[in-house]
Amino acid sequence: MAGIKLKHVSKRYDNSDKYAVKDFNLDIQDKEFIVFVGPSGCGKSTTLRMIAGLEEISEGELYIGDKLVNDVAPKDRDIAMVFQNYALYPHMNVYDNMAFGLKLRKFKKAEIDKRVREAAKILGLEEYLNRKPKALSGGQRQRVALGRAIVRDPQVFLMDEPLSNLDAKLRVQMRAEISKLHQRLQTTTIYVTHDQTEAMTMATRIVVMKDGVIQQIGTPKEVYDQPENVFVGGFIGSPAMNFLRARLEDGLVVIGDIKIKVPEGRMKTLREKNYVGKDITLGIRPEDIHDEPLFIDSSKDTAFDAVIDVAELMGAETYLYSTISGQEFIARIDARNFVTNGQKLRLAFDMNKAHFFDVETEQRIH
Amino acid sequence: MLDAIKALYGPAVAEDLNSINDPESYYWFKTESGMPFGIKKAAVSEKEYRLLTLTFQPLTTLPKSLTDEERIWHECLFLGKKNHEVFSDGTSRYLLHIQLKSTLSDPDAFREAIQALFDQTPVILWKNEETVILVLLNRPDAILAEEFIQILATDFYADVRLFIGTALNGADSAHALYTLEEKAFALARKVLPEKRIYIFEKVLPLVMLTEVPKEIMETAYGSLFQVLKDGDPEWVKSLSTFFEHGMNMKQAAKALFIHRNSLQYRLDKFTERTGLDPRQFDEALFIYLGLLAEKLL
Question: Which CATH architecture group holds A242-358?
């Protein structure tokens, strides 16, 4: 097992002056489950491919364990990869699919057999070893793909969107299976996804990326509770964080003609940073907007009236789509409070959980 | 350098590893540009061999004798021999060009992998140690190509670029089409290095643009280039993604991870500024070629 260190790693393609990945710095601890998350084209897969050795590193240093591996061939980095498209041989059975990589590395037959059967046992594939991939479900195929990686017993697993081909239900199931597998094998894992839910539920730490640049590194809770900028706030969480353009007065945020009180603790920082009298971006998560009378009674100076344009019943909760001074927002409330389209409702922001961002830089105001 | 070797060893030199019946009786090397050549062992003294290994890199894997089918295709594609036998069944063939970044350690395992991947075993032609051509009965789609790349990465730790060719319908045009595809593939790798899969129809406009004088491209596209340089930095990415997804707003917005209305807004702003509407086919074609031209200039 090994940790991985990326020091000022950048990637620029030969004919381009634009960076695909820029100044990437990360220290991955041994046994960690790190998730790179971000929209398509943000550089997460390119970073993974640089770690694998499939892309050259234009600038910076990459260490696996204590060894600088910039110039080490991919096959000598002791890594195993799992991809979105399973990467299985349709005309080999499950056993041969799992054994092929070991055969290539000239493992002895008995050792191959031992490793394949062990991996099949871990993944619940024992009874499918003679089947061809075509005769397996999507989830089983992805398990075979995992098995092909596990049999190598590598120092690091690199997974590139491994669940993206599965339907929503199976994705939830496989997500849990991969987490369990990591707990059991304790192998350092780097997992790339565009799905923030996968990132939140699986990672020990998340690396949020955009346009080739790291936006934030932190535990899922840190990234969710204290997003460093508007992008992270909007990307992590579903439904997404609401962003409202507001003006800051002493003790208040003013959204159009609605005034919302800011707790003194939060106000102190904003005052110190000279934001009073200036425009700011107020971020508020849908679950931090309340309709319960008890909350509104205790938080009268953050309450306002809203007309609900659409109320979407999701089962245990309801999403309310509305506007405040012409700016759209979504609230997530308990489904037991029955709300209909067009209904007038008193709502209140939990300003202790509100986020404040600079309008120009879009960075969090600390 | 190779010319000097040919002058020294004459007919004992073989430049085409696939045209030799007994490759084991040759010493095989590659030139600086990676092109293989062999010299008959009988023509080389021990001292000369040592000198040759200091000058040229020996091939890590010896070329194998070709099967009859491979030889026919080799002659047809690489040497331009019009052997109509290969198309006698009246069926089209498709070429999958594979460019490896480094030499594969085990070409036999590669063959095994290919056989286990495709429904009908393709003809496998090694142009050199890093270039392989597969002759296929069915045209591979982008998903199969992606899977192929992932298999090569997973098992062989190989970084590859693929080019999916167009239909070959007869021996008369096979060599010319192969040559055109080879040229298109090389150009695409240079101009679009971040991509791993190239498709003939998508790359061909790029090849055609290389035939257009630079001045004409600059005159025709000067103002568009300026707008793209000065305007919203998201325009190039938005337009490229919009075209890549068949001008489908919903799919392009999804790929860009933005709301459909946001993409609509961006394209509207672009139209406002340029008078060009990327949602109209002829205007889209003009913009598309402009985006490609910009990469060439």
Answer: Beta Barrel (2.40)
